[in-house]
Amino acid sequence: MRIIFFILYSLFLICGASADVISLAGQWNCRLDPNGQGIQKSWYRTELTEPITLPGTTDEAGYGIKNSKNEIDQLTRIVSWKGKVWYQRHINIPEKWQGKRVVLMLERTKQSRVWFDENDCGSQDSLCTPHLYDLSHVVFGGNHRITICVDNSNNPPLGETQQLTEATQTNWNGIVGAIQLQATDPVWIEDVQVYPNVAAKVTKVGITIGNSTGKAVSCEISANAVTSTHIVESNYAEINIEIPFGKEARLWDEFDTNLYQLKIKLTGTDGSQEMRYNDTKFINFGMRQFRAKGTQLIINDKIIFLRGKVDCCVFPLTGYAPMDKNSWQRVFSIAKSYGINHYRFHSWCPPEAAFAAADEMGIYLQPELPNWASFGENKLHDEYLNIEAERILKSFGNHPSFVMFSLGNEVEINPESRKIMTEMVTRLRDLDSRHLYAEGSNNSWAATSCGPNDDFWVTMTIGDWENERRFVRGSFHKHTMGHINNRSPSTMTDYEKSIAGVNAAVISHEIGQYQVFPNFNEIPKYTGVLKARNFEVFRQRLAEAGMLDQASDFVRASGALAVICYREEIEAALRTKGLAGFQLLDLQDYPGQGTALVGILDAFMDSKGLIKPDQWRQFCSEVAVLVRMESYTWTTNDIFTADVQIANYGKNSINDETVEWKLKDSNACVAASGKISAHMIAQGCLADVGKISIKLDSITALAKLILEVKLRSTKAANQYPLWVYPADANVRPSANIKIYRRLKRSVFEEIKKGGMVLLIPDVNGIERWIPGAFQSDFWCYPTFKSFNPPGTMGILCNPNHPAFKNFPTEFHSNWQWWHLVRNGRSVILDGISADFRPLLQTIDNFERNHKLGLIFETKIGDGRLLVCGIDLISLQNRPEARQLLSSLLYYMNSNEFAPAIELTEKELIKTGLFKDE
User: CA triplet 670, 671, 676: central angle to 5 degrees?
Assistant: First the structure.
């Protein structure tokens, strides 16, 4: 639970009440302006008549162009509008506001222009911060008309920023969040910025006092026992005070979300007895120091590890980010249940409510400028972002959760842009030193480089990925890159060598991106402004391919594989000494860019049922128990060895602890166990605890084993699958079974006459096939198909089928399949019997929807054929390959080898397997 301490510091301006506020939420009228003629024709002088509720958008009100398209790259807006929209309402101004300073506040909108009655009050263009219009010069008591023109067609040239993109939150038109008239005295508190100094146990407070009286005002400032007098001239005055906290100061971090509330009270007079001015502001802040040290991050002298999530503003019901704290508390609480302690807002900045919720819940935030374009190419772009950066720092900088800030996503670097961005980072740091700064996230993409003045570096590689290949994540758009799909599976990979010599905190960029098959049961959930017509198209495609009945199985199997791959991504990061953290892409689906369903949660942050939060936290939490082992597959002749490590990024060091481990079989029977003493596991370190050694000759049953490891007196625990196979698996076929590499006419005729054949095609034995891959398709096939990835999403099988009786497996891919599927070719079985299902099916992506067979069987006349697209002949040095071959031969030699469907000669020719030669 957070703790709020109240401290009163009164600013006696020789003083008064808080601002009066009138909410403008509710019924407004509007008018679309398709030809952009409203200003020329003075629509602000007329009465608008179409009703609309604000806060809200034209999409929510149903105004705009009806959209009959079936978007397949993203969700579909039911209606859309790009251009000017006019909003209008009447308001009664209290007579007591006469002489007050009155400000119209629009918390979040697009480019806006305001008229009060017929008075033009100017325009504003911030996408990230409130629009504040000073109406003091035109306001007087009585009934008035406020007219606002919002234009979402003239946005700054920022690229495909998530602040504007149709891929997620849409380029909406409207006004969301608070819409208010705020009245203060003409001497008021304009701004308060709080700068905690943890080392000195003081907080510096910068206060801006506004004065529109046209007269000098005598100001007495009292803070604790310190009193000083100032003269505030006309316009603005900057006043600085220091608040001592002493040794009792309670600090803010992810573990202790201590918040202080600072009350600033202003009273003043211009010397007369009649004119007295009053204002009050309350500021929540936290005492914390966030800094980089080497390649790591430190808060209040604790080394932390960022377990991050990339947030792309995915809110399908509204098409924009929630503006209330409760909604953000829901979002962050779900993320925290999966061990997340960090959010990177990909090329956008969230509203005040997100920062406030993160303050209370201990989430470290990295907002970004709304930018996905290069600096130095467009003067308007550069000028806008410099101003917007200052507005973001001023609006949200007091929040302790706001720890990092970057200038955009994957910004292209050249000598000119580097110069501009380096200068910008330096200027922003000089302006506000409470945050760490970077030129961007994963800038230059394929040849990333760290800015010379950057505090942190979010990147996926160190340098050029083609030549240096110093990766800091496990998967890429090229399936030939990254250890998860290209290195024999183990738990040994880390990125310590990759990050060596870097002079900034290193954070792994957008790790994961493992696609899960579309869950068509989600379609009815899209009850808001966006419809999942892409899902409807994908469902129809799957139906036309004759596999709609397998849709839910495809979701479960591809999702299980995605979880396995995500786990290895996360553990590889945790195994890396000196790494500052990672940013997942993503815990949640991304509905755009081709439809990237890469989450274990759907777009609504609801579970897909793939893994429970407590299971995920076993490998994604502040204290993680890790096992380093050379392989997941072993034989009974082996001695299993492994090293145990503890990644301790918790609140404290761990002393006098014991690691307990057990090796269990499928019936939870303990095959081996042991204990390791862990006398001291320092906070902020990856500690080597001890070794595990197990002779495997006592393992007799073919089964998947589970190695459980845990810290005895804590909740920290983990488990790893192992597969132990006989060293002498029988791979000799019986006399009645023949193994061939090609299905020629002579082989076909042999089968017809009653033969039993195991076909393991060689490289020329299949014409229509998809190459093997272990990991699920990266991001989504439509986006990266130009790089020629396999585009598949793991395997699906019935683990109880007799073909796998002697080869323990789940219904989905797991590490024992890695060498097998990587050396396999899935036969394209399109156009054959709709009822035909492979024994081992490869799941294709939603664009191609091939029916893919890795192992399948068929009758041919009086005989039987079993086809295995895995090159088991060339893999006999692998125990899992020997065991799978043994299991298939055992099956073929049993009465259970009785294929239900007979593929015709024509169908076999169509598969590219049968060559009539």
Answer: 80
pTM to 2 decimals?
0.96
Q: What are 333's two structure tokens? A: 């609480």
Residue 742 · residue 698 · CB < 8 Å? no
Is residue 879 within 8 Å of 635, Cβ to Cβ? yes
pLDDT at 220: 64
Paired with 197 in beta bridges are 202
What is d(CA 763, CA 541) in angstroms, rounded to the nearest whole number?
30
Alpha helices in 362-433 (DSSP H): 379-396, 415-431
- 20-184 fold: Jelly Rolls (2.60.120)
Cis omega before residue 586 (within 30°)? Answer: yes
C-alpha radius of gyration, the chain, whole number: 32
- Torsion angle, CA of 695/699/704/709, rounded to 10 degrees? -40
The CATH class for the domain spanning 4-16+188-285 reads mainly beta
Quote the CA–CA distance of 687 and 647 in Å, as a whole number: 6
Q: What are the C-alpha distances in Å from 292 to residues 295, 296, 398, 530, 578?
A: 7, 6, 20, 41, 11
Which residues share a beta bridge with 282?
Answer: 263
- For 714-763, what is each residue's pLDDT tens digit? 889 999 999 999 999 999 999 999 999 999 999 999 999 999 999 999 98
Strands 737-740 and 756-759: parallel
Under CATH, what is the fold of the domain 637-725?
Immunoglobulin-like (2.60.40)
> Containing H/E element for 196?
strand 187-197
Q: Which residue, among 314, 795, 355, 326, has the nearest Cα to 585 in the 3D structure?
A: 314
In angstroms, rounded to a whole number, what is the distance separating the alpha carbons of residues 354 and 128?
Answer: 12
Residue type, 410: E
CA-CA-CA-CA dihedral for 18, 24, 26, 31, to nearest 10: -170
Task: Break the chain down into helix, strand, coil percent, rounded to 5.
Answer: 20, 40, 45
Q: How far apart are CA 464 and CA 470, in angstroms?
A: 8
Instruction: Phi first, then psi: give them for residue 663, nearest 5 degrees.
Output: -105, 120
Tell me which residue of 443, 361, 445, 452 sits closest to 406, measured CA to CA.
443
Characterize the bridge pairing of strands 530-531 and 76-77. Answer: antiparallel
Q: What is the location of CATH 3.20.20.80 in the chain?
A: 303-616
Tokens of 227: 């009193």
